[in-house]
From TrEMBL:
This is DUF2187 domain-containing protein.
Amino acid sequence: MMIAEIGDIIEFKEGLQGIVEKVNENSVIVDLTYMEDFDESVMQEKTVINHKRYIILNNSKQD
């Protein structure tokens, strides 16, 4: 299992995406305002996602 790092873009729960702001032992805190349609949705700006529940779309360390 790959664990996301700060700045990575992840996808979870049927297509939601966000930028990792903090990495915890079992989860990450994600900023959801990254999504283009965030203003149209009714959700919090941040959420906590377990490491088992996301995939990394864009690694912040890529060259």
